[in-house]
Structures are given as structure tokens and as C-alpha cells.
Amino acid sequence: MTTTPTPLTTSLQAGPSRELLLSTPFLLKRLGMAVKERSLAAFESTGLNPQHHAVLSLLDELERNGYVERRRDPGDRRRHLVSLTPAGGEALLELRAIAKRVEKEFLAPLDADERRMLHALLLELARCHDPRCAGARITAARPAKSA
After folding, report:
1. For residue 106, is it within any domain?
2. What does the alpha-carbon distance between residue 101 and residue 105 come to, in Å, rounded to a whole number?
3. Of 38-47, 48-57, 125-134, which range is least confident?
């Protein structure tokens, strides 16, 4: 019995394999990276880097930009008290608006009900897997139903 060899073919498919596309953790990771990249690009025009790995470097940057003031705690000289300046308050409003815009653009393929469902499911996962979210109870404002 002779068999004809089957030529090996390689898939030049761009993107992840089917196995990865069927993996929810993979999709969450990829989407997290994608929204992070979009956010960094959107925040770039503000001159602030929201991805600090050390609190002191973040405070140094915010103070340098005039967004916060640091002063020694008169009751404990080891501590600094940090307060938001008026310029910092304005910058915070701008950053929140940018974050909302990025979120709206990123989730644009989903309708309002799908966005609520996605958020509810992610919040439930966060409650189970992130101790900081364990007690989180958020009731989203729902649009009034027309009669």
C-alpha cells in the first residue's frame, strides 16, 4: 500500500490561533492591553503618564506640574500631606473626560445593554478574584423606560 504524501501547509493567518480566540482570559488580556495603549496615547497630550510604578515619582511629576502640593505633617515629620491644587482639579477633570472618551470609543461596537452586561460580568469576576473589589456593590443608573 502506497500513500501519497500530504503537503504540509502553514497557515499565514494573521492574528491569534483559534485556541487562543476561544480563551476568555486571553481575550481579557488582549483587550486590557489594547485599551491601555489607547489610554496612554490619549493621555499623552496632557503631559502626564498615568502608568507610574512608584508613588514618589508620580507625586514628583504632579508637584512639578503644579497639580499637587506636598508639605510635612506637623504632627508626624515622617509623613507628607498632599493636597490637590486648583490646577490639579482642572487637570483631573480633563483626565476623567479623556478616560470617558476612550471608554466610549473602545466600547462603541456594543449597545448600551451589552455594555451594562459586560460591566456587570467583569465586576462579578473582580469581586471574586480581586480582594480590593470583594465588597463592591454598584448600582448603575438606568435610563427611564418610556411608557
Report:
1. yes
2. 6
3. 48-57
- 54-80 pLDDT, tens digit per residue, is 788 888 889 999 999 999 999 998 998
**43-73 as b/e, with b when 16 or more CB fall inside 10 Å?**
beeeebeeeeeeeeebbeebeeeebbeeeee
- In what helix (H) or strand (E) does residue 79 lie, and over which residues does it extend? strand 76-84
- State the residue range of the domain holding 81: 23-133
CATH number, domain at 51?
1.10.10.10
Rounded to whole angstroms, how far apart are CA atoms 54 and 18? Answer: 38
Q: How many domains does the chain have?
A: 1
Task: Provide the whole-model pTM.
Answer: 0.66
